[in-house]
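Team,

Forwarding the record for the chain on the shared tracking sheet. I've put the sequence and predicted structure together so nobody has to dig through attachments.
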Amino acid sequence: MPDSAWLQGVLRKAVAAIIGFMLAFVLLVALLITGFYMLVNATTLALSPMLGEAGAMAVTGVSCLLLLALFFYRMTRPATSKKTASGGDRSSASPIDAIRELVRNNPLEAAFAAFALGVVEQGDPRLKSLLLQGGMVLMKEAEAEQARDKDKTDSRESGTDAPVT
């Protein structure tokens, strides 16, 4: 059982990591907003000699609105399914591709697993191997479930109801 000093150290590190992430995120957002402001200002200043100040502001404003509309159009448009687009044979995929697809399908769980492995790697090797084994079992179960779903859709397409085990 971990002692109180070890637990306090882990909690301090977790709080420091969260605060660091939040500060980095705020800094990056501030830099992004400042960069857009400077870009719009530079565009207006560059167009002012040709179009006049009012015309330059109008062109810059309309272009910003068009970019904003394009951004929201792309955000609200339904995504294309990669499963229907690829449609390839799953048996020839390497284990690394399977892990990459698992991470793409479950990003939050992958982040939690990476955090847990990072914390565990510093300490107990038995717990690390247990987590890795559990992850492999979950990945194999997901692959088996995908294969069953594929068999069900294949049997529905062919018109026969094959028993699925």
